[in-house]
Amino acid sequence: MDARLIAAIVISPFVIAFLYAGIHELLRYRSEGKATYGLMYDEDTGTSYVAGIEEGRESYDPEDFDPASYSDPEVAATDDEKV
């Protein structure tokens, strides 16, 4: 096989994914308008993720993270079992 053909086969899934994401974002922009994205924190699972931020709401700041505020269901279950 030609080296260019192998390179095209390897790169094509990434190109397709990039085009799909671009089209998806363009359609979202046309229907909803400009969006602000930022890091959000889910206290139930203790994970952070990138999401659209509503107007008037602040994004998650890792500097303000307090590990003690995370409510781990596994730890809570073991604490209940000890009592």
Any key phrases for this structure?
single chain, 83 residues, alpha+beta, 2 domains, two-stranded antiparallel ribbon, flat
Arithmetic mean pLDDT: 78
The total domain count is 2
Helix content: 40-55%
Outline, from the CA principal axes?
Answer: flat
The string of secondary-structure elements, in order, is HEEH
Rg estimate, integer Å: 21 Å
Q: Tell me the total number of β-strands.
A: 2
User: What portion of residues belong to β-strands?
Assistant: 15-25%
Largest sheet report: 2 strands, antiparallel
| Helix run count | 2
Query: Strand order, biggest sheet?
Result: 1-2
Structural class: alpha+beta
Distance between the termini: 68 Å
Subunit organisation of the chains: single chain
> Would you identify the regions where 5 or more consecutive residues have pLDDT less than 50?
none
